Amino acid sequence: MAETLLLDQTATKAEKYETLLPQIQALTLGETDLIANLANIAAALKQGFGFFWVGFYLDRGKELVLGPFQGTIACVRIAHQAGVCGAAYSTQKTIIVADVDQFDGHIACSSDSKSEIVVPIFKDGKVVMVLDVDSEHLNHFDETDKVYLEKLAEFMGKNLL
Ligand code: SME
Questions:
Q1: Ordered domains of the chain (ranges, CATH)
Q2: Does any ligand 1 atom lie closer than 6 A to the CB of residue 71?
Q3: Fewest C-beta in 10 Å: which of 23, 42, 103, 126?
Q4: Are the C-beta atoms of residues 26 and 6 closer than 8 Å to each other?
Q5: Is 91 helix (H, G, I), strand (E, B) or coil?
C-alpha cells in the first residue's frame, strides 16, 4: 500500500482528481474493511485539496449517521430529508450549494463552512451513504468536482460496499 500521496499542488483541479482517484483506488482495493477505506478516502481528499471538511454520512435506516471524516467535529444524525445531505439522499442526486446561507434547511455544523457538495453513493441501486465536502470559501464547487466525485462514488459502489 502506498503510504504517501503523489500530488502536484500546481496542477489544475481536474488534473489533481485524475492523479488522486487512481491512488485512492490503489489504497482501498486491497482492503476489505469499509470503515478503514472511508477514513482513508476522506483523508486523501482533505490532503489532496485542503477542503475544510470531508466525510461520509451513512444510511442507518431511520436517518443518516456520521461516519469517518476529516475536519472539525460535526452533527451526528441527519434526518433522511434534512439539510443538504438529506436532500442528496432523498433525491438521489449530487447537490452543489454555492452559498450555504441561501440553501433552505442547510444544517450548519460549523459557521466556517460556506459552500458544499454532497454526492450520493449507491449500492444495488439504493443510496447507502453520502459523501459531504465543505469549503470555507463561497462558490468553491463546480461541475468538475461533481464529475470526479461521482466517479469516486461509482468506484466505491462497485468495489468497496
Ligand atoms: N451541512 C450539512 C450537514 C453536515 S456538515 O456540513 C458536516 C447539511 O446541510 O446536510
A1: 13-159 (3.30.450.40)
A2: no
A3: 126
A4: no
A5: helix
